[in-house]
Amino acid sequence: MIRFMYIPNMKKFAEALEKCYGNVLLHLSDNTTCDLKSNSAAMQMLKMLPSGYTNLCLTFTDSRDSSAFIQYMVTAAHG
């Protein structure tokens, strides 16, 4: 699980999520999960969140995706 505390550009973040190879599980506060790749309503709600400070906990089922998101966040921090 990766916790995202700050997302500088939510639109680009959501676009990157859509390109993931595996499932993207959003961990909700009631201890349930939601697969953002198969739940279009949840993905649309995520896209509507404002950029900036957040508290999103995600699990990527494909290891290529977690590596790509770590790289994405490093790049976003410098851009």
SSE arrangement:
Blueprint: E1 2-7, H1 10-18, E2 24-27, E3 33-35, H2 40-48, E4 52-60, H3 63-77
Antiparallel strand pairs: 1-4, 2-3, 2-4
Helix pairs in contact: 1-2
Report on this model:
The protein is α+β, with helices and mostly antiparallel strands and 79 residues long. The chain contains three helices and four strands. The chain has helices at residues 10-18, 40-48, 63-77; strands at residues 2-7, 24-27, 33-35, 52-60. A four-stranded antiparallel sheet has the order 1-4-2-3. Strand 2 (24-27) and strand 3 form a beta hairpin. Helix 1 (10-18) packs antiparallel against helix 2. The longest helix has 15 residues, at 63-77. The termini are far apart.
The overall average pLDDT, rounded, is 89
Care to count the β-strands?
4
Tell me the distance between the termini. 25 Å
Put simply, the count of helices is: 3
- Please outline the major beta sheet: 4 strands, antiparallel
- Give start-end ranges of low-pLDDT stretches: none
Strand content: 25-35%
